[in-house]
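Service request form, structural biology core

Requester: graduate student, group of Dr. S.
Request type: structure prediction, single chain
Budget code: on file
Notes: please return the result as structure tokens.

Sequence provided:
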Amino acid sequence: MRRFGLLIAVVWLAFVVVPSPARAQVDLGKRLQSVLSQTSGRAAVVAVSGGRVIAAAGRDADENTPLHLASVSKTVTAAAVFRLAEMGEIDLTKPIGTYLGRFVSTPNDEITSQPVSAFLNHSTGLPSNNLRAVTSGLTTWQQYADFAARGAVSRTPGRYLYSNDNYVLLTKLVVDVTDLPFSVAVRKLVWEPLGVAGGGLDVSTRGTQVLGGAGAWVTAPYAVALLLDALNPETNGTKLLSKPWLARMHAVTYAAEYRNGTRYRGDAWGHTGSLYAVRAAAVVAKSGTVYVVLSEGARPKSSEKLFDSLARLG
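Core staff response, request fulfilled:
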């Protein structure tokens, strides 16, 4: 009888302590609302596990609303470059100049002689000149790529220095290798294998029109979450690359904090983005759950805060 009473107590305790899936989803929804409250303007946040939405929240938008990615675009661009590499169209160890077509101006050999991998990892020594490009009157990413290629290296190559110049030149690489417009090439390389539309570049604003794959992509939070899940070697489901290439994408090539289009912070990885009135963060947490928040407002001051808030969701 004592044993039977103990069994009842254990069952009762499990019932009380362990939340039901429905309760857990409600709790996660509230935590996503808390992240959303840090932003302003149109915004949406989503949690995805195993390719399925497990919770979401939004303000004048939802997980399927196309929103600006800002620098989260770099993960999209890096994925396209890695797809080309796995297909044998490019070699990441060869100079980027091997794959770049003609420039309007003569490029700086100190830049174009560096390997593709250096551009993926912000290790070329190039500063970020997108603001100079805009104030100089440039209006397209092609013009910015030409501007970047004839620029000057400001830090010893091989050391980490975050720069939009790197990814606008990678935008040109994708276009020149595929002989397709960037949005079309990325759709075929990245989004079609994942079964989503995937959006495209926004060239309608002064800030985004020069950025190309460095920061002008627009797509839904859910699409971004599917992409990060497809780049996660630790989970099952649809993957964009083979296991060896996924391992290569996440390997430390230059700096541990930035690996081929993904930022690492503690136990989480993903990317952040800030551009005028855009704040974005995409995070793969330690649990493997993917969290993405995209907002078209100027809060918070730094998208790093959003990254950390999402990472803490576990």
